[in-house]
Design goal:
single chain; alpha/beta; 18 helices; Rossmann fold; seven-stranded parallel beta sheet; 2 domains; five-stranded parallel beta sheet
């Protein structure tokens, strides 16, 4: 495929440090290809919450520095002009959390092509969650939406008002970085804190308590959290609970009045004294690399950890909203836990080396069919082509032919 007459100017709108992994391989592919001219704008984490944004800005800056990425810091008054960029890549779907000048309709008015790389790997159903995951202005209007599987594409056909015509199954770029980083990432600091113990990674969601009682209550934090913390504190000499809460969990504790901001340092100190490792790094991949298994509320980690080949256990809130078809399929293969006895049984099986997760591993072909480290390259090829999907819906079942060349040809 011939290169364009001039480089394609691509604007990356970066909001959250934990979402950098979603576009890192795209950025690398574009910086290595003279056909592209990528530019990163660093936006507030959440323009509605200046305190949270200030706290995360430093983490985001440090992450980008560590990755050798140069960026432009957004300041009030910065706006886009017509023909300034050819493509805009969004990493977060919610307009209300971006400066108004960078709401989707404003960007689309200035930039010919818009791309959405989903910030998370959706697992939830329920009316509110489906609206958040498939019916935001960005999801409805983007010229290209990148998804990892035919099942995810089918959910756009079912739940997005605009359907799935613009949705391409290219594989999710976050897995490109995951596959590479698990072999190369620096885990020395985290390993020191774990201290040779068997580490179980725990990912707890924020949607608990009265505020979420009528919608999106996927969290088991208040149901299983106390017993989990007690169990690992009791077994701290041999076991390590590697706790990586959802970034929204601590803010939710403050919002519900369960803690004050002044009490957060004491909480961190207390869990450390109990032998629990609280991981709040911007990058979650060291935790993936250092852990022997995952227990997690419904969320992106379930599908992402599946790529590691390690055992995982989804945690289920019996009173929570329903999950989508793909999440239900994953749980059918991997099992799940709704009470602590089931969690304890899983931990014992991991420790004793008796875990049977063959069906879970077999489900990777269904949920992560393009797990080859080339999703970023496929996206670049799609932009150069200007149209066309990675493979069609006529593909029998979920079997996918390997891409033969990372230019104009993709698996079909």
């Amino acid at each position: 495929m011939s290169a364009p007459e001039r480089p394609i100017r691509v604007l990356f709108l970066l909001q959250r440090p934990e979402a950098w992994g979603n576009v890192a391989s795209i950025w690398r592919a574009m910086t290595d290809d003279p056909s592209f001219q990528p530019v990163a704008w660093l936006l507030p984490y959440n323009v509605e919450d200046t305190a949270v944004s200030a706290r995360h800005r430093r983490l985001h800056q440090e992450l980008l520095v560590s990755q050798g990425v140069q960026w432009v810091e957004w300041t009030p008054g910065m706006t886009l002009t017509a023909n300034q960029f050819d493509v805009a890549v969004f990493t977060h779907p919610y307009d209300r959390e971006r400066p108004r000048a960078l709401w989707f309709d404003r960007v689309r008015a200035c930039v010919p092509k818009t791309v959405y790389v989903p910030y998370g790997l959706s697992v939830g159903a329920g009316a509110k969650n489906l609206r958040l995951q498939f019916a935001q202005p960005l999801q409805i209007g983007a010229d290209l939406v990148v998804v990892r599987s035919l099942a995810e594409k089918a959910m756009y056909a079912q739940y997005c008002p605009a359907g799935d015509a613009r949705v391409q199954v290219l594989g999710h770029p976050r897995f490109d970085r995951l596959l590479q980083a698990l072999e190369t990432i620096d885990t020395s600091a985290l390993k020191t804190r774990i201290g040779g113990r068997t580490a179980i990674l725990w990912n707890s969601h924020f949607s608990f308590g009265h505020r979420f009682s009528q919608s999106s209550n996927f969290s088991t934090f208040d149901l299983l959290g106390p017993e989990l913390l007690d169990y690992f504190a009791h077994h701290r000499t041999k076991l390590c609970l590697l706790w990586r809460p959802h970034p929204g969990l601590f803010p939710e504790l403050l919002r519900q009045g369960l803690l004050t901001s002044e009490q957060l340092p004491a909480l961190r100190a207390e869990v450390s004294e109990l032998g629990i490792v609280l991981d709040e790094q911007p990058d979650h991949l060291p935790a993936f690399a250092c852990s022997q298994a995952l227990i997690s509320d419904p969320g992106s980690f379930l599908f992402e950890y599946l790529a590691t080949g390690k055992p995982l256990l989804p945690l289920v809130n019996p009173e929570g909203e329903p999950l989508n078809a793909e999440a239900i399929s994953l749980m059918a293969a991997c099992g799940s836990a709704a009470c602590f006895e089931q969690v304890e049984h899983f931990i014992a099986a991991v420790v004793n080396g008796r875990i049977d997760h063959g069906r879970c591993l077999a489900s990777r072909e269904q949920h992560l069919p393009l797990l080859d480290g080339k999703a970023g390259l496929r996206l670049c090829a799609a932009l150069l082509r200007g149209s066309g999907a990675c493979y069609s819906n006529r593909c029998a079942g979920l079997r996918i032919q390997q891409c033969q060349a990372m230019g104009s040809r993709n698996g079909d």
